[in-house]
TrEMBL record:
Pfam family, one: Glyco_transf_N
GO molecular-function terms, A-Z: enzyme inhibitor activity; pectinesterase activity; UDP-glucosyltransferase activity
InterPro entries reported in the protein's UniProt record: Glyco_transf_N, Invertase/methylesterase_inhib, Pectin_lyas_fold, Pectin_lyase_fold/virulence, Pectinesterase_cat, Pectinesterase_inhib_dom, UDP_glucos_trans, UDP_glycos_trans_CS
Signal sequence range: 1-23
Protein name as annotated: Pectinesterase, catalytic
Species of provenance: Corchorus capsularis (Jute)
Domain of life: Eukaryota
Pathway: Glycan metabolism; pectin degradation; 2-dehydro-3-deoxy-D-gluconate from pectin: step 1/5
Single GO BP term: pectin catabolic process
Keyword entries, A-Z: Aspartyl esterase, Glycosyltransferase, Hydrolase, Signal, Transferase
Amino acid sequence: MPWSKRLLLPLLFLITLSLTGQATPKPLQSHFTKFSRSPLNNSPSYYCKDAPYISACETVLLSLKTTKHASPKFTPKQLFDPTLQFSLNHAEMARAHVYGLSLSYQQFQLKNKLVLGAMNDCMELLDDTIELLSNVINGSNTNPSTHSFDDVQTWLSAALTNQETCIQSLQNHKLIMSTYSENTSLLGSLAQNLVHYITNSLALHVSSMKPDMNPEGSRRRLLLSSDSNFPSWVSKSERKLLEASVEEIVGWNKSNTNIKVAVVAKDGSGTHKTIGEAVFGLLLKDGNNGRTVIHVKAGTYHENLKFSTKQKKVMLIGDGKGKSVIVSDRNSEEGWTTFQSATVDTHPKLTMASQQQIDIVMIPMMAHGHLIPFLALAKQIHHRTGFTIAIVNTPLNIQYLRSALHKDPTPGITLAELPFNSADHGLPPNTESTENLPLDLIGNFFASSVSLKAPFHNFMLDILQKQTKRPLCIISDVFFGWTVDVAKILGILNYSFTTGGAYGTLAYVSLWLNLPHRQTDSEEFSLPGFPQRCRFHVSHLHRFLRNADGTDIWSRFFQPQISSSLQSSGWLCNTAEEIEPFGLDLLRKYIKLPVWTIGPILPKPLLTKSSTNPSNGLLYKQHAGKEPGISPEKCLQWLDLQGTDSVLYISFGSQNTISASHMIELAFGLEESGNPFIWVIRPPIGFDMKAEFRAEWLPEGFEERMSESKQGLLVKNWAPQLEILSHESTGAFLSHCGWNSTLESLSQGVRMIGWPMAAEQGYNSKMLVEEMGVAVELTRGLQSSISREQVKKVIQMVMDKQGKGGDMKKKAQEIAKHIRAAVREEGKEKGSSIQALDDFISTIIRKNEEL
């Protein structure tokens, strides 16, 4: 078949995806050239008098004059770079503003899809603008020769067009102006200012040309060569590819590693059933080298394709004109804007998911230790795939997550509320998480979560009615097993996510499924799923678990929820293969389901070597909904005064505290050890956790002595834990051994002192001591006895760098290396956890194709 009769799409993608920036721009308007020839002068008004936008030019010049490095006179090149940076700053400001506006719109549940669509248009256009401007800036700062004059001009022209499209989209939907007149007026102003700054940048770019460079002459690339119907800049190898038959290309795929071929066929005879799935599958493959060809077999495909701008050299090829057809079914009546209705589009952050389509639904347990890992997982999946993810929970927990998103915006994540009234379940008003909840009410709280089943089912039905495609899957908390029933009824895949580690999760699961334990003959016992050498002690059991018999409120919740989760399609586990090989092997054998190790889910700065002493507050910004009792800056200043590996950090998490008598003994032991420490103090057991901390709960004069001697820093309520653990002065962590805190400590190579209190904490502590060798236990449980002498002895042993403490430190540092390796992604190299997440994503796509 001659190449000219081939489906037009291959050539279209060849040009738009692999040769971005090569198109010849239109001739510039005369005032651009006039601006470029303005005389150099120290006066902003004089220099900018011929600028396309005088005020914008003066704003940039005045900002330069306020800096100590400003030059008294500016060449066009000297002004081009800051004007460009000014444009990028305003683009990021506009992006943050429209995202906040979108969240506000969703919070008030306004239903006009076109209004939200207009906001999404602007977000997508601003994302593209930020990438385009960054391309120019990065090229200018590193190697200017890598970008041609035409490249830069095309990128700036595209960025300019983006703002005009955004403004037009806003003007088309007047409801925005009437509902959010103040906010959208600011958004419109930001977009218009961007037009001014980018236009001036474009003019300055032309002014930086050499005099002999003719905008319409020698720089222009000839589209057609004299002896061919191909553009002259298409290489011989690309010409050969365009002229080849499908059979020839498939043959090359087998012998040429630079060509990858995916086949899309509606009847299932290819590698994929839809083009979008093929596009996403290619994104997951290692590297971007070589040409990728997607052969779309005959048929009509109702799809809207979004390619990431990172996907280079992608070519679509069909079976002939009129045979392989891609049709967009989006229209304004269904809530789609003109911009979103394009059949094929590119975007710097998205691939195949539209912002209106919910691809994955997540529902975490109503506890902060579960909410944050779920949010972090949602961000990871979105950044890797472009999927839109809905996180569903009760109103106050959604408010908590919204606060977290405000600090670290992610446009691909939506939040949805399920109705919940705590008073209906015998709980205090506004009780929607375990934080600050008395222990005697936690069983009732867990049981209350089952009431979310009906509203969640209705939520899912609403999605199915509004979307053309069902979500790929539901990812639910391992303790929300009731979601498995909802998923099966609706024909949707369901996966359970345990936010704990493999060892601790298995122990907790086995204990609840093998009741009762109060009849244990001895203090030590074996547990189904564990080898005989792993002996558990009755002190590992929380009193609720020790007394559970299958009829109590705890048993009636945990047994059916865990049992149902074992009927899901697989489990995700917040750990890594390298740090828990033993626990993972036991877990997989026990539950007999696929287990993907996608952790540790921690902020990226914590997993890089450069995160040590992050005084810029980058880690703190990723905390959600909490204000520390001390600023990160003051905390870091105190740590800077201490020696390397010398400080003991003490915190029992957001849900735990100790008794008043324990608090007194711990304080005396800390003082007598002479070791520097940071201690997060909260009211003891039996008092309101939200109350002010009283001096009587500590030894008389203790706080004053610690402040004067600078031995200890007492932080009330909550501390910036990530900053503390990542600081080089922090040597050990006295912890309740909750899994999130454990991962944060291990990721920094910080050894631990265990004081487990509830849930799976005792089993985490057992693993840290017996399997990893990075911890010792101070005591266990809330009823145990503890003395100041014991506290002093354990602290001195752990902090001794020459004895056991030194060995623990080495082992902790080795685990930290394993953690960083598991989440590392450099070029084609992927850590085990990155690979596991990609494998999970590929699995849910494949299983949906099979449904």
